[in-house]
Design goal:
There is one protein chain. The protein has 221 residues and is mainly beta. It has a domain of 153 residues. 9% of the residues lie in helices and 40% in strands. It is built from two helices and twelve strands, in the order E-E-E-E-E-E-E-E-E-E-E-E-H-H. The strands form three sheets. Strands 1, 2, 3, 6, 9, 10, 11 and 12 form an eight-stranded antiparallel sheet that branches. 20% of the residues are buried.
């Protein structure tokens, strides 16, 4: 058998960055997302799985088994700005041109964004597309500070909870990750034409089952 070798050339991978954010606000029809809009100014998107905690069961004077709690996905978003379409997702309603009313019902949304993949040979090796479904943003602080001799642009941030969507052959999920370095190029191009739109069609959000079909994935038995 070959001997294990660490840190071989071309195998020192890293991932960084957040870019190409796309917001898909929920449409007036519940469960249907509207067309995608560009989200400029993303600073950070953090996905934080919760749950999946073991609960020990004892019987016959021994540890009998572990029962695992359901895993859920929470997230946080930080940005310098956000698209107008996100206002309703943040609990605001437009009452008149230039006038927003707060403390209104919050609309669900989905978010897609990219992170960059590189290695020691090629810093532009590829990228990952991350998609988060069933998002609901919680109220967040908005701090306005005086301009001083060390000015900083204020950022907005939101804590997000999610509701999983169905995926045939798998448990329901709130997140997908597509790796450009491991995906058939033509299939990836077809997916990006849907996610980011074309000159003939607006950007829309495909659900996991459609993405599985586009990428030629195989359901788990």
């Amino acid at each position: 058998m070959p001997k294990l070798v660490w840190d071989k050339s071309g195998e020192r991978f890293w991932e960084t960055g957040v870019s190409k954010g796309v917001l898909f606000p929920m449409s007036a029809v519940q469960g249907v997302y509207g067309n995608g809009v560009v989200w400029n100014g993303l600073v950070n998107v953090t996905q934080s799985p919760t749950g999946a905690e073991p609960s020990a069961i004892y019987a016959d004077n021994i540890k009998y088994l572990n029962l695992m709690s359901v895993e859920e996905l929470e997230a946080s978003i930080e940005a310098y700005t956000y698209p107008d379409e996100f206002a309703e997702c943040d609990g605001s309603a437009v009452a008149a041109q230039g006038l927003k009313v707060g403390q209104q019902p919050r609309k669900m949304f989905a978010l897609a964004y990219q992170s960059k993949i590189g290695n020691d040979v090629n810093p532009d090796l590829g990228y990952k597309i991350h998609i988060i479904y069933g998002c609901l943003a919680g109220p967040s602080e908005k701090s306005h500070d005086t301009v001083n001799d060390s000015p900083e642009a204020m950022t907005f941030s939101w804590d997000v909870t999610t509701t999983p969507v169905e995926l045939v052959g798998f448990k329901p999920t709130a997140s997908l990750e597509i790796d450009s370095t491991k995906t058939v190029e033509a299939n990836l191009a077809a997916l990006e034409a849907i996610l980011y739109g074309t000159t003939e069609a607006e950007a829309r959000l495909p659900f996991p089952d459609e993405i599985m079909t586009i990428l030629g994935a195989v359901a788990q038995g």
